[in-house]
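User: Quick one: structure for sequence A, then sequence B.

Assistant: Sequence A:
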Amino acid sequence: MVRLLIAFLILVLTNVSYGQVIPDIDWQNCYGGSNGDQGFAIGLANDNDYVFAGNSSSTNADVTDNHGGGDIWVVRIDSNSNIEWQKCLGGTSFDDARSMISMPDGNFVIGGYTMSNDGDVSVHYGGDINRDFWIVKLNEFGNILWEKSLGGSNDDVPHSIIYNDLNEIITLGYTSSNDYDVIEYNGNTDVWLTLQNEAGEVQWTKCYGGSMSDNGYSVINAWDYGYLLVGSTYSNDIDVSGNHGESDMWVIKIDTIGNINWQKCIGGSGGDVGKSVCKTLDGNYMIAGVTGSFDGDIEGNHGATDFLLPN
């Protein structure tokens, strides 16, 4: 059974225990400069510091050494919200972080995209207007250990990044390319998964989908082996079967080398999208998504778009 997980944005809360209804805010802080700054991912360092990543177009206040356009911005803060260091990563075009993981060795890996072909970016395949996956490994001080652009000549955008028990790095998103790192492209946009070793070397990449638009939003290590992917599909051919109409939430179980074990479309005749997935304590999975359907697998929609609770 697939159930809904609703997640709330929380600052830093303390004194949370059973029986308390409203926790206290320990502290809150704003970081950035006078232009647009956004945070997309946060992780816990080995010494209980926090590291967050997003993008910044600022060149003042908390932000220094911006390369131009917009950079990936990575900030390490202590438990009292003080900045220990901050780094701008990228080139003269737009670069953005979408996900980040804290590795067991104390380093960090950022899953983002780049439109740059200079600065910190060694290679860019997508020309002037398209994005590449940009995977960057940083040490505990924010220095780049390695960086890798992945993709092709069209648009390639990551949404989720994890590591497995071999410390290999798995990145999920979508691709509209059919060259360079992208093979077996099915058409329009495909769910795209990449696997790199600890040194950033690509071990394999896989496209999943059909002839219409497909996108991957969240990946986790599966309970038994391999990975569970969640996203959306407009297709009903090639890798996809059972689409209810328009876009469906699409769940894909793959093995350790990327072969599909099974796939399932969840939704109705409206637009349905899977956004996030986690494991449950009983050995199943819980998925958070959005639905615009009133039929098929969907019951109790209140109108417009609702959170999705498929049975």
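Sequence B:
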Amino acid sequence: MSANFSCYGETAIQTPHVDRLAARGVKFTNAYVTAPVCSPCRSAFITGMYQTTIGSHHHRSGRGVRKIALPEGVKLVPQLFKDAGYFTTLSGWPISPNKLGKSDYNFEWDTAVYNGSDWSQRKEGQPFFAQIQTPGGKLRGAHPEQWEKVCEQAAKRLGSQTPSEAVDLPPYYPPDPDIVKDWQAYLESVRLTDAMVGEVIERLKAEGVLDNSYVLFMTDHGISHARGKQFLYDEGIHVPLIITGPDIPSGSIREDLVEHIDIAALSLGLAGIEVPKVMQGRHILGPDYIPREAVFAARDRCDETIDHIRSVRTQRYKYIRNFLSYRPYLQPNAYKDAKAILIALRRCKQRGELDDVQMLHFSQRRPMEELYDLSSDPYEIHNLAEDPGHGEILLAMRQRLDSWMEETDDKGRQSESIEMYDSDMALYLDRLKGRFPKRLQVIEENIALMKKWSIEGR
């Protein structure tokens, strides 16, 4: 989910538990992930490295016969904590002592980096490093019956329901009833997530460890929507980040640019553990921290759909480069195309109900470069890349991105091998057999189309 919490300015709902965290600690208003989809993002987060540097940039890659190994010297953050004597955990929701939470890392790793799934399993007095994963935006599901369910769940648990009239859609989405209902369910999932955060805080408090623990709250990428998840607009990469703990000033706000990989270095630094020199994340609360002038993000293959997009964002400008500009914005993707909101968008198009901004979703080609002035265009609608008045800014942003790709050894500069693609697709298809026969056929057709386009140089 995105930063749709009341402490971040969301007015349709109230999120008291996350708001209290922000009041107790520091809230970052410009935190960004380096990938707008879960597995590359988590691979980066858990190593403090750009997924493009460690070769884990393709979504759900290295899962088949062909594997991906981390570069020499790169270690998972929980391993570094474990080596320092910490009890390390990975918890799903609800927290269970019998099952690890979702990892979704795109490389070979040893589950032994985690001692367990609940810090209650540690020795008395042993410090702990815990990752706790709530369902987040996935609570809302993808279809109307699931939207109704989460709304009912919110009403039952929280005593009220967010009215559909409170929904304020971004201008690039039409007010179709299904899209409004989906966003309403999304807001309810935010409220339920807030309640889960409250449960964790109450447990830490009851156990007497809250006052000497650092608590970090974030999401792993933006809302799953047509222009959010899988894309490099702010809807896909801007996330909340709140940190509380000893010596962190209450109610402080940081507006400088940070990346989610910085949490790796931050966590180690707060614990007094040496940050590996190879780590690209920065200790954003450290005494020697030098603020970033820009943040970077990358989108590559997602499931069966091949793509290659890079972005650089400063406080004011966003530059996006579409390396496969000759492909449509909404390339075929079985996961997203099955969502009721995408079906609704296409229905609106057929009915002629979309304005020029909303029709951008259906462009059959993308501009090679996109440039947005975020101060006047926060929704990233007006592309200034061909505006002569922004030529110097375009050149500077273009060069900044080129330098980052070179300096960080962006592995996406080389196409994924057909052998790796086939290896991952074979496992993907095998897992869907017997479960989603209709989607299976769509994926097979999409795979054939991706290969055809690649051969044609599209």
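Residues 29 and 255 are 5 Å apart (CA to CA). The longest strand covers residues 26-32.

User: Thanks, that's what I needed.
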